[in-house]
Amino acid sequence: MTKTATHLAFLTALTALTLGACAKDDKAESADPGSASAGKTVSAEPAKLGAVSLASMSLTLDVPAESLVSDNTATAGFPSGTLYADPTIFVVGANEMFWKKDLASQKAEIEKDPGNTFKKFTKEEVVEGGFHLEYELASMLDPKETLYGFHVRATIAGKEVDCSSNTKGPAEMARGVKMCKSLRASE
């Protein structure tokens, strides 16, 4: 398989995972609208966090204990990891394929997303060594449904890292941002 074909396959899989990560809602689901759990908001805090490692990237972050970690660096050809948590988050290092060098370029990329239609930015914060963006999108699966996306860019041990996801609600986004902001160099 050529390098281009491998990268295209990786991006296709990444897109599918992003859509799968957006399949949960911040509201408890119930067949019976009169049940005790109907319409209750799920807590923004995971029950129990534990440190996990993305060994090839020399990074550690805090995620819910039941999360699965996939270090995709070898197959992607650049620093990359997926954390199957609630929400699923994607961690990538600088690469030639889809790395946006600065805040303005990242915002332009979000605005032109071919699948989920951009609505608005809700947070734009520049921090030392990176930035924190939050935004709303219309879901490609149901344009009436709003997705809540984020990118947390940081420089850790001299390396730029981007952590992101599209989520179904503000509470889920808050959990993802918290996980991303826990990124640190492995000891």
Task: Enumerate the strands of the largest sheet in spatial order, edge to edge or round the barrel.
Answer: 3-4-5-9-8-7-6
**Secondary-structure element pattern, one letter each:** HEEEHEEHEEEEHE
Q: In DSSP terms, counting alpha (H) and pi (I) runs of 4 or more, how many helices?
A: 4
CATH homologous superfamily heading: Mog1/PsbP, alpha/beta/alpha sandwich
- CATH architecture annotation: 3-Layer(aba) Sandwich
Distance between the terminal alpha carbons, to the nearest Å?
A: 36 Å
* CATH topology-level fold name: Protein Transport Mog1p, Chain A
Described by strand count, sense and barrel closure, the largest sheet is: 7 strands, antiparallel
Overall mean pLDDT stands at 81
Poorly predicted sequence stretches spanning 5 or more consecutive residues: 1-42
Going by helix content, strand content and strand pairing, the class is: alpha+beta
Radius of gyration of CA atoms, rounded to a whole number: 17 Å
Approximate shape? globular
What's the CATH class, please?
Alpha Beta
Number of strands: 10
Assess the beta-strand content as a share of residues: 35-45%
Helicity, as a percent range: 10-25%
Number of domains: 1
Word description of this protein:
This protein is an alpha+beta fold and 187 residues long. The chain has one domain: Protein Transport Mog1p, Chain A. Helices cover 24% and strands 36% of the residues. It has 4 helices and 10 strands, in the order αβββαββαββββαβ. It has a 7-stranded antiparallel β-sheet with strand order 3-4-5-9-8-7-6, with helices on both faces. Strands 1-2-10 form a 3-stranded antiparallel β-sheet. The radius of gyration is 17 Å and the shape is globular.
